[in-house]
Amino acid sequence: MESKVLSQAPGSSRQKKAAVINDMSGFGRCALTATLPIISKLKVQCCPIPTAILSNHTAYPNYYFDDYTSHMQPYIDEWKKLGLTFDGIGTGFLGSKEQIAIVRRFIRDFSTEHTIVMVDPIMGDNGRTYATYTPAMCSEMKQLITCAHIITPNITESCILTDTAYHTGTWKEAELLSMACSLADAGPWKVVITGIPQGSYIGNFCYDKHSGISALKRTKQIGQTRCGTGDIFSAILLADAIHGVALHHSVKRAADFIKECILASIRMEVPLTDGVCFEEVLDQLKP
Strand runs (DSSP E) across the chain, as ranges? Predict the structure, then answer.
């Protein structure tokens, strides 16, 4: 009875809340460090589940790392006692088959018919899986995306998930649509293939299975690649989806906001490893 009261405290049912499963890097503006303020700014309570604790992300020459796998289930079990459910659930980098299995159970146990589940299947880039990602983990990720309503793979991850040959040439819309349809057939309602090179532009390909609408949204490429931009992108999409914002509009405003973050970071001469100084332009992001 006490846990039921705690989970339904006055006002709590009126505010949207999202559980976000990712690592926590104390410095470097990525993962939960970036996701928390973005989702909060969009008037959604952000409830983190850390998969690992890092002093700073791994692009720096040295860092402290604590794998949180053994703590995740006991942490989650306490939320079960509170009877929590969420309007949205988002996942980021998962470092093992065990973590992926924990996330699948979490989605099963904490979702309602109204919960939006978004999976960012972080597995690789530039045509290759990350060194820590095994074929078995790739197979598990293929199962995890079946639990999602929205997925946001980059072009490399889209190829991995659909067994499509990766190439470095310009991706045609017909190729992107074929991959997006294949991904949607696995379960997700909406697919956003991110980070598609388009000459001097970067593209995001959106596909909505229910409407059949697809579109390639392009943004002028500014500066060099920075840590954390994918986390910011996913955070905006998750919060917007919870609020019922149309996918195509959400993708465009997320890309536009990241562009402003990069411009501010260039002006302030923020090192690439330090991510983007989104704090300087956060007031431009409206719910």
Answer: 17-27, 45-56, 65-67, 88-91, 116-119, 124-125, 128-129, 150-151, 190-198, 201-208, 214-220
